[in-house]
From TrEMBL:
The chain crosses the membrane at residues 97-116, 122-149. The keyword Transmembrane applies. This is Uncharacterized protein. It comes from Heyndrickxia oleronia. Keywords: Membrane, Transmembrane, Transmembrane helix. It comes from the Bacteria.
Amino acid sequence: MKKVEPLEAILWSIALPGFSQLLSGSIIKGLFFVSLEFIINVNSHFNKGIMLSFLGKTAEAANVIDYQWLMFYPCLYMFAMWDAFKMAQDKEKRYQYIPFAFGAYFVTIGLMYSPLVYVNGIFIGPVFLPMIFLIPGLGIGFIIQYLIIKFKKLEN
């Protein structure tokens, strides 16, 4: 199994879930993640939604997206990133999954609220609002991870 750096693992996983696993030699797991990403992406029409969102047509993107399929995407995406990051670590750190899990939760919440959110009359849409929600999700996850580690040290 090839060892990759943690940052490299995260960046390849951002590019496509499963790429980092393939790079590190976990072929079955990598192909599984890539296949799931492909299935979810095609059935949710996510690439079309991304393209329309970046062209400023967020309302059209919201109409193209199949939310029932896209709801699976945040958890797959964040789990594949966590798995890649974990595999790249020399020594697994305790509670390192917490920011990834909270990131997935918050992206999912952002996706659920995306049809309703307008800022100054501008529709944010199903691509950008979940991306924005990732930031507080990771932040809260890191804070909770820090607090758990701190309280565990105080107990000992």
